[in-house]
């Protein structure tokens, strides 16, 4: 899916990480969201190796404004890579 972006929550491990890596084969960019920055960075490397760009957002989605902050960060990036 050229110039498509997916947001994956829980992307730092388990099913979320596996989903992100799988989606990276078909999406041009992924927004990776979870609390654990170190694990998110590892997922981002795997996503890049699979062919997609990655935006890492370490945040606790249980916080009241977290979803809005993720959406704002995503909106501020366009379609990544300047496209």
Describe this structure in words.
- By secondary structure, the protein is α/β, with parallel strands linked by helices.
- The protein has a single domain (5-75), classed as NAD(P)-binding Rossmann-like Domain (Rossmann fold, 3-Layer(aba) Sandwich).
- Helix content is 40%, strand content 20%.
- The chain is built from 3 helices and 3 strands, in the order βαβαβα.
- The protein has helices at residues 14-23, 37-49, 66-75, and strands at 5-9, 29-34, 53-58.
- The chain has a 3-stranded parallel beta sheet, sandwiched between helices.
- α2 (37-49) links the parallel β2 (29-34) and β3.
Provide a compact summary of the structure.
This protein has helices at 14-23, 37-49, 66-75; strands spanning 5-9, 29-34, 53-58.
């Amino acid at each position: 899916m050229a110039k498509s972006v997916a947001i994956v929550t829980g992307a730092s491990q388990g099913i979320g990480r596996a989903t992100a890596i799988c989606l990276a084969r078909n999406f041009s960019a992924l927004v990776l969201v979870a609390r654990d920055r170190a694990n998110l960075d590892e997922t981002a490397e795997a996503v890049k190796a699979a062919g997609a760009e990655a935006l890492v957002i370490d945040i606790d989605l249980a916080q009241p404004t977290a979803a809005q902050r993720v959406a704002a960060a995503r909106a501020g990036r366009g379609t990544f890579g300047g496209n």
